[in-house]
Amino acid sequence: MRDLLVAEVERIDPTSEGAFVTLNSESGQLVTFCYPCACDAGDHVGNRLHADFVVELQSPYFEDWPAAERELAARQRLDRTGTHSYSGCGQIIAPRNGLVQVCGFVIDFGEVPSGAEFVEFEVTRFSL
Fold first, then answer.
1. Which of 75, 68, 59, 74 lies closest to 27, judged by CA?
2. pTM across the whole model
3. Beta strands at 49-58 and 105-108: parallel, antiparallel or unpaired
4. Would you say 2 and 26 are in contact if contact means Cβ atoms under 8 Å apart?
5. What's 48-103 look like in SS3?
6. Is the peptide bond before 14 cis (omega within 30 degrees of 0)?
7. How far is CA 43 from CA 31, 34, 82, 106, in A?
8. Residue 19 pLDDT
9. Model confidence over 13-58: pLDDT tens digits?
10. How confident is the model at residue 70 (pLDDT cuts 50, 70, 90)?
11. Cβ atoms of residues 126 and 33 within 8 Å
12. Structural domain boundaries of the chain?
């Protein structure tokens, strides 16, 4: 689990402790909420984000699907769907802890579907 690079910090307003932080992994980029935010562009932060306001979290396929279709459905992706919202698909790396890895980011969902290896998700916001 590599640390993430802070690419940009956008304060909510000049006096706010809250900010939206753009993070880079080795293979992706996303914007996350941070409060209180003490990081600056160029800093490195731990690689564990929290999924806030999860809209969808489920297996990307059914067990009776052919292997080729399951493999295609389970490919890692992270798509920005709004100002701070994302959808994607990632691999469950710690089922008991609800941790999912996607495009170099480790995301804490709290819980993941039992028995699944991969999950597709829709999240309104991530937080640092």
1. 75
2. 0.92
3. parallel
4. yes
5. CEEEEEEEEEECCCCCCCCHHHHHHHCCCEEEECCCCCEEEEEEEEECCCCEEEEC
6. no
7. 15, 14, 25, 18
8. 97
9. 988 999 999 999 999 999 999 999 999 999 999 999 999 999 999 9
10. very high
11. yes
12. 4-45, 49-127
